[in-house]
Amino acid sequence: MIPFVDLKSQYAAIKHEVDAAIQGVLESCQFTLGSEVAAFEREFAAYCRSKHGIGVNSGTSALHLALLAAGVRAGDEVITVPFTFVATVAAIDYTGAKPVFVDIDPRTFTMNPEALESAITARTKAIIPVHLYGQPADMDPILEIARARGLIVIEDACQAHGAEYKGRRAGSLGDIGCFSFYPGKNLGAYGEGGMVVTDNDEYARMIRMLRDWGAEKKSQHVFKGYNYRMEGIQGSVLRVKLRHLEAWTAARRRAAARYDRLLAGSGVPTPEAMPYARHVYHIYAIRTARRQKLQEALQARDIQTGIHYPIPVHLLPAYADLGYRAGQFPHSERAAAEVLSLPMFAELTAEQCETVSCVVKGLAAESSACAGGTLKAAKER
Ligand SMILES: Cc1ncc(COP(=O)(O)O)c(C=O)c1O
């Protein structure tokens, strides 16, 4: 069996360190926030090359608080992409603001800066580019437009721990960066977790208060806040794992390069890493017009895959109230219909990559023989 993500072998490799860290929290009884969370905040902020890190209980909470700190309120508009995990849009909705979509660049699956300008209105307050799959969005043109229009840029870096754009770390590119430590992420907690990073002292102060009931000191509630605190055990586990992140990222990049080599010439479009990016391959998504067939062929050989994401957010029933229709964001819609995520984790072996690639290539060859048109279309894209 080749799993999509292999958390068990990761745990086996770091069991001693993780067990000792959790034991430390059990003994200190610092179960929410506390010294382990504070240390992890400092260490992860430094890793992102940001001044402040504020630990929270999920990536969704990180986005929600970043938006509130940026002053986003009901009646405002926030621009993002529809080809993302639903949480990006949910966080905007929590503030009462309206999510406004722009399409993606089909080569990178991230925000197309050229589509941005026409989506800006007098109500626009912020922009959330999503560094989908672990590759940063093309940030310079996005930041240039935002600066010219006085808009705040909040990075959804929930899939991009350690990713880089022109040598700068994801999370530190815009005004505020948001991370998720959901267990399957490149840096994953043993439960839920998230972090906001920023260089801005005032945003950091507000987010720190908002995550803990809006209180500056115990019982001094300055704002209407939330219970979004990070747990001590998660902070301790994440500190251990952060020490391994660079090695894990290097291993992911080697596995991605191996897939690239094995699938080259098969006619199956593989992910395009842009020259400006250090892609950290949270997801390795190929494109195929015969997705269901390929997924079934892989499943028949006990190879797990995923689809991130099958329905773009503007077409989800939950967000029908936004009033979008099919056909409005063709690149997002096409990506949603064609992407297939192959197994990707740091411990993935060369042999496992070969087994997966063999099945993918086998079906591609079969389809070129019996459905050449489909493959030709994929190649031309
Ligand atoms: C792009 C993106 N945004 C936001 C989130 C939300 O993070 P969480 O699940 O930690 O709330 C995720 C994580 O799944 C994500 O992948």
Structure explained in plain terms:
This protein has helices at 7-28, 35-47, 59-69, 86-94, 139-149, 201-210, 232-263, 291-300, 330-338, 350-370, 372-380; strands at residues 52-56, 77-80, 98-101, 104-105, 110-111, 124-127, 152-156, 164-165, 168-169, 176-180, 194-198, 215-217, 220-221, 277-278, 284-287, 339-342. Mean pLDDT is 95; it is low at 369-381. Strands 1-11-10-7-6-2-3 form a seven-stranded mixed beta sheet, with helices on both faces. It is α/β, with parallel strands linked by helices and 381 residues long. The longest helix has 32 residues, at 232-263. The two termini are 32 Å apart. Helix 1 packs antiparallel against helix 7 and helix 7 (232-263) packs across helix 10. It binds pyridoxal-5'-phosphate. Pyridoxal-5'-phosphate (PLP) binds at residues 58-60, 84-85, 87-88, 130, 156, 158-159, 180, 182, 192, 194.
Give a short synopsis of this structure:
The chain is 41% helix and 14% strand. The protein contains eleven helices and 16 strands.
Q: SSE order, as H and E?
A: HHEHEHEEEEHEEEEEHEEHEEHHEHH
Overall pLDDT level:
95
Give every kind of bound small molecule, once each.
pyridoxal-5'-phosphate
Structural class: alpha/beta
Distance between the termini: 32 Å
| Biggest sheet details | 7 strands, mixed
| Total beta strand runs | 16
Question: How would the blueprint of this fold be written?
Answer:
Elements (H helix, E strand, L loop, with lengths): L6 H22 L6 H13 L4 E5 L2 H11 L7 E4 L5 H9 L3 E4 L2 E2 L4 E2 L12 E4 L11 H11 L2 E5 L7 E2 L2 E2 L6 E5 L13 E5 L2 H10 L4 E3 L2 E2 L10 H32 L13 E2 L5 E4 L3 H10 L29 H9 E4 L7 H21 L1 H9 L1
Parallel strand pairs: 2-3, 2-6, 6-7, 7-10
Antiparallel strand pairs: 1-11, 4-5, 8-9, 8-14, 10-11, 12-13, 15-16
Helix pairs in contact: 1-7, 2-7, 3-4, 3-6, 7-10, 8-10, 10-11
Bound molecules: pyridoxal-5'-phosphate.
The site of pyridoxal-5'-phosphate (PLP) has 15 residues, from helix 3 and helix 4.
